[in-house]
Amino acid sequence: MSSDPDDHPIEPGIVGLVYALETLRVCQPCWSCEGHNDPAGALHKPPKVWFFARSVMYPDLIAEYLADLGIARKLASPWQVRVVRWDDALATAYSIEPRIDRHDVPPLGRLRADIRKLSRTMKYEIAGIARRRIAALDRFSRARR
């Protein structure tokens, strides 16, 4: 999953989420960070995974999955999908990352716990969301005939 595993390995704290995204087989991870604290112990860089998607539908599925987890309060912090700039590519890049409120910055340990939860549930939950969307489209299509 890393183009240069010797000099630029995937950091251990984010590898599960990178792998979960890769197993969707419709999103190609291109960069990641496990998150880092500054010398004083405060969050300096939040964890995130950047990826390319074959269709805008896939980031939308991931965003719905993250929103569902947030509504159900299954994560310590809210997470989001954002469009990001990737200079070397013609395709649009996206990021999965926590939505940080500068007045309530979560500790890195809580964000890494969220990463572990996302890593365990992403593939199956997103597949369920996709199945529900397809079923709704089928119902709509049958109703219009």
Biggest sheet, spatial arrangement of strands = 1-4-6-5
Poorly predicted spans: none
- The proportion of residues forming helix, as a percent range, comes to 40-55%
Shape: globular
Key attributes of the depicted protein:
145 residues; alpha+beta; four-stranded antiparallel sheet; two-stranded antiparallel sheet; 6 strands; 42% helix; 21% strand
Short description:
The protein contains three helices and six strands.
Give an account of the 3D structure.
The longest helix has 37 residues, at 108-144. This protein has three helices and six strands. Helices cover 42% and strands 21% of the residues. It is an alpha+beta fold. The chain has helices at 15-23, 57-71, 108-144, and strands spanning 27-33, 36-37, 43-45, 48-53, 79-84, 93-98. The mean pLDDT is 91. The radius of gyration is 16 Å and the shape is globular. Strands 1-4-6-5 form a four-stranded antiparallel sheet, covered by helices on one side. A two-stranded antiparallel sheet has the order 2-3. It has one domain (15-144).
Reconstruct the topology from this structure.
Elements: H1 15-23, E1 27-33, E2 36-37, E3 43-45, E4 48-53, H2 57-71, E5 79-84, E6 93-98, H3 108-144
Antiparallel strand pairs: 1-4, 2-3, 4-6, 5-6
Helix pairs in contact: 1-3, 2-3
